[in-house]
Write a structure and sequence with these properties.
The chain contains four helices and no strands. Helices cover 59% and strands 0% of the residues. The chain is elongated. The protein has 122 residues and is mainly α. The model has no long low-confidence stretch (mean pLDDT 79). It comes from Linnemannia hyalina.
């Protein structure tokens, strides 16, 4: 009976500890992900190898149309966001305040928006 070195048995653990057989290779999650990605790539590669030139051109056109559609949607969303920002009032108004209102109107408000104060004496 042949001994399978990859089995997890007490006997194999003892042999590994003594250095008689090589340590078992640990498979990490990253290794599993890489194996899955490789399998998917090979599957896709086989699908492309079986297609004719015309079919490949058609696939490229479909990919380009999909990418173009996604870019147009993103562009439209971005334009809408810019229009929304432009439509909001960015600037308030000029108002006369007194010493008692200074903290509320200047110090506290400057935490949210820029405040320009013009100080003068009457």
């Amino acid at each position: 009976m042949a001994n399978n070195h990859d089995e997890d048995t007490e006997w194999n653990d003892i042999l590994r500890a003594k250095g008689i057989i090589p340590k078992k290779e640990e498979i990490t999650e990253a290794d599993i992900v890489d194996m899955i990605d490789d399998a998917i790539a090979k599957r896709d590669e086989k699908n492309y190898e079986q297609k004719t030139v015309d079919e490949l051109d058609e696939l490229l056109d479909e990919d380009n149309e999909e990418n173009e559609r996604m870019l147009m949607e993103y562009r439209q969303q971005r334009l809408n966001a810019i229009k929304q920002e432009m439509s909001e009032d960015k600037f308030g108004e000029i108002q006369h305040i007194y010493k008692t209102d200074f903290i509320r109107e200047v110090s506290d408000a400057s935490k949210v928006v820029w405040v320009v104060a013009y100080l003068y004496k009457e």
